[in-house]
Design brief:
Blueprint (H helix, E strand, L loop, with lengths): L17 H5 L30 H4 L2 H21 L4 H22 L4 H20 L7 H19 L4 H9 L10 H4 L6 H30 L3 H10 L2 H16 L2 H8 L5
Helix pairs in contact: 3-4, 3-5, 3-10, 4-5, 6-9, 9-10, 9-11
């Protein structure tokens, strides 16, 4: 086992790492008045009238952009006889190509740019240390940070999912409403309990990633670490989003009653 501390880089900070997991995307919520602007993605998907796992994780393109750098890194690293430089070049090229293609097609580049940043950190860190495992270290730090932050929201009674739902409510701050309306659910024990349960899948996902991937990192199991990152990236994110959506959807009648109280 290596005695080094977990330092900073990562493969791609998208559905595989928490960037797209908890960061609302650039699209509108599915049940908002201007929902025809596009499908809701990321955490916004849990507020929608319907749920599409594909749309929630960015569609086929989003999945490819998320998976390609890490996959190429592992494949090229093994194919090149565990030489680090070709693997770093392949991962960097995949991330840059995604941005260039989006620029050429004049489509939003937010997700691809977040990937370049994540890959760039991983590439620089692994290049400086000469250790292929360090390509994945930033992702471990990010997952650990989000695990702590998400768990704290549950413990203090302000679960993450409740905050997200409040932000994108029709009378919430992101739709022209007030912050007071965004957190009105906190005074309703039933809603607060439902949002707490809807946040638990995120705590479990981040904890599972750390529990599985950290030992592989310390043991320099590059191939297994890369495989675990891919397997526990998009699939787990889609599952967490779906579970949260189901639980949030069950609160819709109560939320509507809260947002439109009867007038005596």
């Amino acid at each position: 086992m290596s005695d080094r501390e977990v330092s900073a880089p990562d493969d791609a900070v998208r559905p595989d790492a928490p960037d797209d997991v908890v960061r609302p995307d650039d699209t509108v919520r599915a049940d908002a008045p201007d929902a025809d602007a596009g499908p809701a993605r990321g955490m916004r998907a849990i507020t929608g009238e319907t749920f599409s796992a594909s749309d929630a994780v960015g569609g086929v393109r989003g999945v490819v952009e998320s998976v390609a750098p890490g996959l190429l890194f592992v494949v090229v690293y093994l194919a090149a006889g565990q030489r680090l430089t070709p693997a770093l070049v392949a991962a960097s090229a995949a991330a840059l190509v995604a941005v260039v293609v989006r620029l050429v097609q004049r489509t939003p580049v937010t997700q691809a740019l977040s990937g370049v940043i994540g890959v760039g950190i991983g590439v620089v860190w692994a290049w400086r240390t000469g250790d292929a495992s360090d390509y994945f270290a930033y992702g471990l730090w990010v997952n650990g940070a989000y695990l702590l932050a998400t768990l704290v929201t549950v413990l203090v009674g302000w679960p993450l999912v409740g905050l997200v739902v409040g932000l994108f409510a029709h009378d919430g701050p992101l739709n022209g409403g007030s912050w007071r309306n965004a957190v009105a659910w906190h005074d309703d024990p039933a809603l607060r309990r439902a949002y707490t349960w809807a946040t638990i899948p995120w705590v479990a996902m981040f904890a599972l990633r750390i529990a599985v991937q950290l030992p592989l990192y310390f043991n320099d199991e590059v191939a297994w670490l890369g495989t675990a990152k891919l397997a526990m990236g998009v699939p787990l994110t889609a599952l967490a989003l779906w579970i949260s959506w189901v639980l949030v959807r069950s609160t819709r009648p109560r939320r509507q009653q809260q947002e439109s109280p009867e007038v005596p």
